[in-house]
Amino acid sequence: MKIEFIDGVLLKKALSGAARLLEQNKEEVNSLNVFPVPDGDTGTNMLLTVKSALKQGLNVDENDTYKIALATSQGSLMGARGNSGVILSQLFRGFANGLKSKNNIDIITLANALKQASDTAYKAVMKPTEGTILTVAKECGEFAISISKEEKDIENFIKRVIEHGNKALDKTPEMLPVLKQAGVVDAGGKGLMYLFLGAYNAIIGLEEYFEEEEAVEIKKETVHQEREHIDTDDIKFGYCTEFMINTNYDDIEKFRKELSIQGDSLLVVGGDGIIKVHIHTNNPGVVIEKALTLGELKDIKIDNMRIQHREILLKDELADLKKESEKVKINKKYSFVAVSIGEGIDEVFRGLNVDAIVPGGQTMNPSTEDILKAIEDTTGESVIILPNNGNVILAAEQTKVISTRNIFVLPTKNIPQGIAALISFNEEASIEENMINMSEAINTVLTGQVTYAVRDTEYKDNKINKDDIIGLTDGEIEVTGKDINDVSLKLIEKMVDHDIGIITIFYGNDVDENKVNELSNLLEERFKDIDVEVVFGGQPLYYYIFSIE
């Protein structure tokens, strides 16, 4: 039976099918990471982003394809994790924009939406790299446009686009030498093609798709611990109020200002049909009444935070509320938000006056929403975000689009860079001066990392076996071996020059004190004029992180 258009019901099935197939193949996408280190999280980041998108898309009661796509776009933006997740959120955004004023999707509309998806994603990346998910998306969009007038059946149209996309994916190693040397195609591009194939299978009825309850499940760790009694008088605004508005009103900034006098922790995002509101207030009725003037409300949720505190609920949300109730609301000139992993590294950041820490590292990239929530916990006139991971920078940048706070993202790619930036910070200087000084500081520190290979591979003509110890610096594998201290010493010997004054060792969960002290002694003996410091980092997966200055 020929399919001439996609309606809202079929679009939801397609989104669900896409998510299911990616989940089934997540580990394969993760395994395509160029480096054989334990941070191949492209598949995980894309899946979590898609699930966040799907949750919002399935919550749209109507069958209007544009409203479904718009909600999906907004969900993907809030849930975007890692570079691949942020790029995927921009693909969703462009796709939604391509469906404006369209209740159903015909071939011409679908082709234009795919092309607009690619164009939007390219614009979101400062320096687009060919041979990545961007290339695959572009090839799909351009090919879709080229065949859109000759094809009359959506099933065959999508099938041809997928075939062309897979050919483009197969060519990515020719565009990026690192892919060719590793013998893999681009992970993000592979994930995108699984999404397309899953959507196609659902549309033609070949693939089961997520039920709503299954689709929205995103696992979170629950905090289970005893909490002392908290004085509810410390809670200035007692009702946590959340809801969605179906509306044609698009002056988000004006509505945000109207609500701002009603409480704090305000978040108003969306537009083009759907607005999401979160606020802590003493007058939820007033907030609801103001919202009703704009349109129809759904997903209304009002929690009495004072009662929650008295009952000491074991929920992640209560942990956030507890922090807020205990926090002294002091107006500050600057606040810092840092992404960190490892209790020891967390303590280092707190000692350097970081206001909010977002858990996240190589295998657990935080979402844009995670970073936004941390920003809400700060009171500074200017908020400086330290991503401390190259795969988190784009998600951090997205907060500037969503939040009304004065946000600055310092593109730190690792923990030592974040620490160096904080040390150079001057409370008395202007934000412009501090951003310049901190940017210079992150370029003065060298970072080394020691971990293990998660698979057999070949890198720069060197054969690496699974479980080999790997020493990295500047994104390059410099040393391999069987002993972590032997690899560490060789790595540092390659990194140290006559200008180095101090080496700091952050040791992880899997290293005992005897082992790190042995390394410290080796370094002091080898580099007699350089100070060596040892700090417990507590980070997983990476035995050592070295800061060399």
Automatic annotation (TrEMBL):
InterPro entries reported in the protein's UniProt record: DegV_domain_contain (IPR050270), DhaL_dom (IPR004007), DhaL_dom_sf (IPR036117), FakA-like_C (IPR033470), FakA-like_M (IPR048394), YloV-like (IPR019986)
Any GO molecular function: glycerone kinase activity
Domain DhaL: 9-201
Gene Ontology annotations of biological process type: glycerol metabolic process
NCBIfam families: YloV (TIGR03599)
Protein name in UniProt: DAK2 domain-containing protein
